[in-house]
Amino acid sequence: MQYVCGIEHTVTALILCPGTLMFAYGGHACFPTFQHDMKKPRDFSKSVIVGYSVILIMYLPISIFGYLVYGGSLTGGSIIPSLQVKWVQTAVNILITLHVIFSEIIIMSPLSLTMEELFKIQNKFGIGRVILRTIIMIAVLLMALTVPKFGPILDLIGGSTVTLTTMILPGIFYLSLVAGKKK
């Protein structure tokens, strides 16, 4: 076993790491749905650039300054507990919370739209949509509360289904579409 920055590195961790990484980028499989739902789909690239820019603005400063100040002396996977100024910890936690909230809304959109179609709920604001989306969020919350260690599930899903929907199937679908046009 090797320790780098106080974190244990094992063969098991090395094998599970790609699953975690793929889970982190799993939301990209939803991009076609987002583009389809836009009023001006041709502006999709602009929205992606703005979205990634905002995330960089939120995360990059704390990462850079944290590394410059603490370097390799960190003892855990997160830099936040090492920050000694309380308002900086609070600001970082608020930015991470905002990112998670906005990501949750975006990532849950395809599921919500599919469920609305399944239950024949109109695609406009109404009590049916509010109730269904509330039920979906309660189910997500119950899952989060009942699964104490999400890491192994994250690795399993990230290494299997997310890898398929993010890396393998889009290429296959694209090739199928191109082949269909040529026929």
UniProtKB/TrEMBL annotation:
Q: Where is the Amino acid transporter transmembrane domain?
A: 11-182
- Decide whether keyword Transmembrane helix is in the record: yes
Record key words, sorted: Membrane, Transmembrane, Transmembrane helix, Transport
Q: Where are the transmembrane segments?
A: 48-70, 90-109, 130-150, 156-177
Taxonomy, superkingdom: Eukaryota
Per its UniProt record, what Pfam families does this chain match?
Answer: Aa_trans
| Gene Ontology CC terms | membrane
- Which cellular compartments is it found in? Membrane
Q: Which PANTHER family match?
A: OS05G0424000 PROTEIN-RELATED
For this entry, the protein name equals Amino acid transporter transmembrane domain-containing protein
Query: What organism is this sequence from?
Result: Pristionchus entomophagus
